[in-house]
Amino acid sequence: MNESIFVIEFEAVPVSEGAEIASGAYANVYVLAANCEVAIGRAKREVESAGWCVTEMTGAKAISMESFEPESHGLAYYEQCKIDGVVIVLHTWRNEH
Fold first, then answer.
1. 28 exposure class (CB count in 10 Å sphere: 0-12, 13-18, 19+)
2. Span 69-92, mean pLDDT?
């Protein structure tokens, strides 16, 4: 099966335990999959199994090594995804009241 790497972007909130640490997060999920639909499903399951509830999908696209500048963090995530099959990058925020 010929697979590609996709980046799926979500907004998410912690299910329970993470609520003290963060109020929400942007998740960039690098996932190796046969097509975008499969990538979206796997990315959502991975984020949810990590303790986050997906509230919105904000993007999905196929990427290649040429998508990145040399030495960028994204390129490192792309390379790691080729090895592990999935990489989740969370950018968290805390809502102060």
1. buried
2. 95
Q: How far apart are the first and last CA of the chain?
A: 50
Closest CA to 43 of 93, 90, 94: 90
Residue 96, pLDDT > 80, answer no
Phi, psi of 90 (to 5 degrees): -105, 130
Encode burial over 40-65: b for 16+ CB neighbours within 10 A, e otherwise.
bebbbebbeeeebebeeeeebeebee
pLDDT in tens, 23-68: 899 999 999 999 999 999 999 999 999 999 999 999 999 999 999 9
63 lies in which domain range?
4-93
CATH of the domain at 60: 3.10.510
Domain count, the chain: 1
